[in-house]
Structure formats: structure tokens, C-alpha cells
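Long-time lurker, first post. I've been practising inverse folding by hand and with some scripts of my own, and I keep getting stuck on stretches where the C-alpha cells seem ambiguous. Below is the full C-alpha cell string for one chain I'm working on. Before anyone asks, I'm not after the true native sequence, just a reasonable design that respects the backbone. If someone could post their per-position residues I'd love to compare against what I wrote down in my notebook.
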């Protein structure tokens, strides 16, 4: 990804040893992110790395909770890339309002909140107080491409 428009948030990503990936192309008829009014809404972000899922399956069966938590971090990074693609500069983020995380879960797995903490913690590390948000962590039977985790967010932009 280019460094044009890089600012404080991307400097913080670099301090953490993280880089924004390329925006994950849609796998169906939708956009990765859209701006409406003073908000950005992301599509559900899968934990794609270089165009593929590093792990597939259900959390609590083929995928451990710790692996899934790392995948949720990847989803959050992909979400930040999607936000940047529509606003140009992550420093335009006023705050993360809401995060919704979906966990493809084995029937007896109940640790969805701990898994989605991967995304929430990353947003806090990168954005500080602006990354504190409301959240839902939902267990589901299956996700697209057999992904273990999917994360979406709603972000308020700084008023210009």
C-alpha cells in the first residue's frame, strides 16, 4: 500500500511493526467500505492474507481460540485498509463506534468475546481512546469461504 496520506495512525502502525495490507477485493456484489454522512461502514472483513485464508474451519474444532484471536486482528487490519481506501487518511478517524464480530463456532464453543478481542485490542493499540467502541461477538454456524472469523466496523469521521 502506498504511504501517500500516511499520518499519525500509520506511524503508530509502523511502531507496532504492522503495515496495512492491500484492500481485500470483494468476493460478491458489495464494496469493502462506504462513506455515508460522517461515517464509514466496512463490509465484513475476512482474515485474508495475500489473497487467501491462512486457516479455515470452526473455532473450537479445527481452529483454536488463540488462532482465531490472531485472525480477528488480521480482520481489523483489513478493515483499516478498507477505511483508508475510501477516506484517504486514517487520521480522519474520530472514533470507532461499533465492531461486530462473527465467529464460526463448534456447537459447544462459547468463547466468541475472547476471539473478537483480537480485533478490539488491535484497534485500541493503533487508535488509543479513538479505538474504544461498542461491540457484538456472535457465534455462527459457517462463514464465507469457511473462514473462522469475520469482523466489520462503523467509524465516525472527524468533521471537516
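-- Answer (accepted) --
I ran through it position by position. Result:
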Amino acid at each position: 500500500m502506498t504511504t501517500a496520506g500516511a499520518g499519525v495512525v500509520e506511524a503508530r502502525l509502523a511502531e507496532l511493526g504492522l503495515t496495512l495490507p492491500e484492500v481485500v477485493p470483494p468476493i460478491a456484489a458489495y464494496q469493502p467500505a462506504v462513506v455515508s454522512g460522517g461515517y464509514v461502514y466496512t463490509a465484513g472483513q475476512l482474515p485474508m492474507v495475500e489473497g487467501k485464508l491462512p486457516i479455515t474451519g470452526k473455532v473450537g474444532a479445527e481452529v483454536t481460540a488463540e488462532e482465531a484471536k490472531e485472525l480477528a486482528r488480521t480482520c481489523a487490519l483489513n478493515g483499516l485498509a478498507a477505511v483508508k481506501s475510501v477516506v484517504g487518511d486514517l487520521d480522519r478517524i474520530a472514533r470507532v463506534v461499533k465492531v461486530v464480530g462473527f465467529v464460526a463456532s463448534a456447537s459447544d464453543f462459547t468463547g466468541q468475546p475472547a476471539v473478537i478481542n483480537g480485533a478490539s485490542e488491535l484497534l485500541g493499540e493503533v487508535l488509543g481512546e479513538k479505538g474504544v467502541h461498542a461491540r457484538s461477538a456472535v457465534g455462527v454456524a459457517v462463514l464465507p469461504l469457511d473462514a473462522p472469523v469475520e469482523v466489520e466496523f462503523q467509524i465516525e469521521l472527524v468533521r471537516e
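A couple of notes from the structure itself: The radius of gyration is 15 Å. The first strand starts at residue 33 and ends at 36. Happy to go over any region you disagree with.
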